[in-house]
Amino acid sequence: MDTKTIALSLLVALIMGSSGAVVYTLNTSTVDTEEEKIETIEENKVENYPPKLMIDEEISMIWDGTAVSIEGYVYDENLATSWVTLSVLNEKNFAVLESMNLSILPSGKWSTETSITGPGSFVLAITAYDSEGLESEGNPVMLVINPPEENDARLTFGWTPPMENETLGAVEGAVLHEYPETCSIEYRPSDQSATSIAGNLSEIDGTYTLLIDTDEHSTIGFLVAKCGMFDESEQSISVNLPLPPEPVGDEDQDGVLDDVDECPNTPAGEPVYSTGCSDSETDDDGDGVVNSNDRCPNTSAGANPDAEGCADAQKDTDDDGLTDDVDVCPNTPAGEQVDAFGCSESQKDDDNDGVSNDIDTCPNTPSGETVNEVGCSQSQIGPQGPLKILALHGGGQTANSFRSMQGMQDLMASLSDYEFVFASTPESNNVWIRDPPGGKGEPTTDPDWADASISYLDQIVEQQGPFHAILGYSQGAAMIPVYLANTDNTFDKVLMYNGYLPTTHEGLIDTINEDAPLSTPAMVFSGENDDGFKDMAPALAQKFSNCLEVHSPTAGHNPPYQSDSKYNQILNWITSD
Questions:
Q1: Which end of the chain has the smaller Cβ count within 10 Å, N or C?
Q2: Which residues lie below 8 Å from residue 18, measured CB to CB, with a gap of 6+?
């Protein structure tokens, strides 16, 4: 660890302050009734863990002139009583620029706008606290705000000579730059080196007016434009501004003499570049579409643009993140994730059976075999159909996001002859069991608290069953013992990944305890790096009379990947008789 990192860590530690932890001790005495009541209360207490703060170790962005926003996520048993403190420090001397306390949304997300007003490097000291004073582990977060790229200043101009019997003429046009508020325009007469005439330039669109008294100043000189928020550039144009009567040599009266005017017929009133050409006569990228009509001004040579000057390499018609020139599937439905070729699962049919991947439950159908509406041929399902697994997503997830997790993708690939049915909770906020109304510190006692989810799962089993197994992840795993204790439907096997018992719902726990131990063969998986859940796995396993407990030394809060050392053990258990 370098000296700078050590200094940052020490400074963040000072800003975080100290926190306390509450330890609950279980009274195991069974001498009399009062002690048994105390023991029951103590056992029902939910152990409080320090909040977990989720944010990148380094944040890099390009300054766009707006307030800099910071956001992240916090995981805690009770987000409603937790908060986040954030301090912004100068990266050079660690001086605190601002500090704030932030509330946390029910989803765990927090966000704020800082008072940072430009590029630079900063240090963010961020800590999450809960109501009992426990705090998250804190490491400094580097915030690097880079200046934006700036194009060189470009200048257009038009000349309005003095009216008859007057000496005041006007140069009008525009200075083209991303930050017109940084631009200036002046005229420097060629025979008056110490003289310059400043123009009146709009900070909004860069248009300007510059008045020249032809009695006092030469009409031969230079127009000079300067621009730059962080990187100053300059363009200088030599001009010979004609006076009435108009001299021979500027037929289109654009201020550029005919001998150097590449566009001698510029439409009246259009500002021109130093070439004497206006945007309606200029095609900078050579794509056949003039600048005034060109929506894509930097088309590559040889490309075939459309009527608006945009080539396929500059367009993304379906907004899937891939330009049209490399997008094999140009009409991806909005919101669907795509592969490296721009195709979503609904646009692909890997086994060419006529059923798209997103609804194909038998992805490796032999060539030529007739399939049903879900992509399965008779050879794949047999007379009784494929073995089905009912899968319950985690809290805050959707069925599709659970299906997309790497561990589930690996499992489905290994069990290609099984049919996975991914259920979606009927409750709001994508949870199977709603939080207690008063927060997790005030448990519910209603045994019917999860009836909506139970009824929904009964309907799924009735319509799409029978199911060989039921699988749950995180809160989906917590829902499984609740469901099994409240339904007559049965399963051959139960798989619970990264789960726990819903101890904040005493009515549900009472029903589970009345039916425990549950006799369905079960598997409970936990990961060593799943700090918030791994210690709750044994209690979940104890509710089953025949349970295989699998603990991965490397996994976090996710179903195990195929590379996990415990993956094959679980796979063999699923496929065993």
A1: C
A2: none
Cα separation, 461 vs 445, whole angstroms: 27
97: closest CA among 75, 76, 123, 118? 123
Backbone φ and ψ for 42, nearest 5 degrees, come out as -65, -40
User: Does the N-terminal peptide bond of residue 517 adopt cis geometry, omega within 30 degrees of 0?
Assistant: yes
Q: Does residue 13 have a pLDDT over 60?
A: no
Please name the residue that has the structure tokens 């459309």: 306
Asked if residue 333 belongs to a domain, the reply is: no
Question: Is residue 48 classed exposed, middle or buried when 0-12, 13-18 and 19+ CB atoms within 10 A define those classes?
Answer: buried
Length of the chain equals: 577
User: What would the pLDDT profile of 348-393 be if each residue is shown by its tens digit?
Assistant: 988 898 888 877 767 788 888 888 877 777 776 654 568 999 999 9
What's the domain range around 410?
A: 386-575
The answer to whether the Cα torsion of 29, 32, 34, 36 is positive or negative is positive
In degrees and rounded to multiples of 5, residue 57 shows phi and psi of: -75, -20
Evaluate whether residue 356 is within a structural domain: no
Which of these, 241, 268, 269, 245, lies nearest to 164 by C-alpha position?
A: 245
Last residue of a domain, one of 253, 281, 309: 281
Q: What residues pair up with 526 in beta bridges, in sequence order?
A: 551
Q: How far apart are CA 160 and CA 188, in angstroms?
A: 17
